Amino acid sequence: MKESIVVTGYGMVTPLGPNSNQTWDRLMSGVSSIGLLKGKEWEAFDHPRAAQALEVWIPQALLRHDRSLQLAVAAAEEAW
């Protein structure tokens, strides 16, 4: 028997936007998200450039966890 997969929701936090709608709109508009990296860890570099995921609201309980977990939860909440 072949199993079926059903997608019931999706979510994303990307350099183009904090949710799927803004990400898609900016992607279709040709917006670039590459810019100077922000944060003290990048101050040692002359011109640090990359595309960073945008800031999103993070639940207080997750603030002590690493950024990848915070972004994953934000995307999961949108999908939910």
Task: Give the topology, please.
Layout: H1 20-29, E1 34-36, E2 49-51, H2 67-79
Which properties best describe this structure?
80 residues, two-stranded antiparallel ribbon, 2 helices, 29% helix, 2 strands
Question: What do you see in this structure?
Answer:
The chain has helices spanning 20-29, 67-79, and strands at 34-36, 49-51. The model has no long low-confidence stretch (mean pLDDT 84). The protein has a two-stranded antiparallel sheet. It is extended and about 55 Å long. 29% of the residues lie in helices and 8% in strands. The protein is an alpha+beta fold and 80 residues long.
The gist of it:
By secondary structure, the chain is of the alpha+beta class. It has helices at 20-29, 67-79, and strands at residues 34-36, 49-51.
| Structural class label | alpha+beta
How many beta strands in the DSSP annotation? 2
Could you tell me the mean pLDDT? Answer: 84
Over all CA atoms, what is the radius of gyration? 16 Å
Low-confidence stretches: none
